[in-house]
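During data preparation, a discrete fold description was generated, as reproduced here:
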Amino acid sequence: MIHSMTGYAAITRELPQGTLALEMRSVNSRFLDLQFRIAEDLRGSEPLLRELIGAALSRGKIDCRLGFSTASLAQKPVQLDREVIQRLAQLSTDVRQSLPDAQPLRVIDVLNWPGVIAEDADIAETLREAVLAAAREALQELAAARAREGAKLADMIRERTARIRARLGELEPLIPQALSAYQDKLAAKLREVLASGEEERIRQEVAVFGVRIDVAEELSRLSTHLDEVERVLKTGGAVGKRLDFLMQELNRETNTLGSKSVSKELSAAVLDFKLLIEQMREQVQNLE
């Protein structure tokens, strides 16, 4: 299976303590680039998320956002720390003995005092397990999205590859005719040059003919590279870098073929090849 580096996943989990929200966005990158935006209460989850993502993905810029909205007191069980309240009451009494005009503590002051509302001793472990479960689910969703996009890109590359191959098939029968016409044109030039006795120009024209007369090697290499593109797509896996190299090779052979063009048909075919190769190259950049 071939995966794109573009994908999105969002997971929300309702917990007694509040709402956990995890979001992952993925775009193309040469390497695995992880960016995290994590709520302060869950900052300790970053190493766990980094390990999970690194094991699941090999390339792409991943933007991971993890947030937590605490439930209101009406929605979650609340326990008061009696010991803290007693100590706070004793402190209040001591202060008022020294400062008789001091105002007594209000209930809201007591409830807002750090430690008065007892935290569940297992809340950290509960959140950790919830983050772990949400991350695994998000990675599955992200992988599925990247796989769907990768399948579409692979189909597009196969279609462009088939069009180049078909164009090569149309071009090959025209090569002998084009070379024959070029030979006739060159023969006329040589007769003109021979009449003038310019030996240097004769050598130049013969050298140019020697270069342009043989395009079989470029056509063969183009066909071979197309075979390799199809083989890589069929094999699947992390194919992005391999296909990127093949796009460079296809483009190089096409440029060489263009430099040897001896007819407008060949020049037009070269332009078609370059357009199709560029379309494939742009999409290959998105493959893992």
User: Anything to note?
Assistant: The first strand starts at residue 7 and ends at 15.
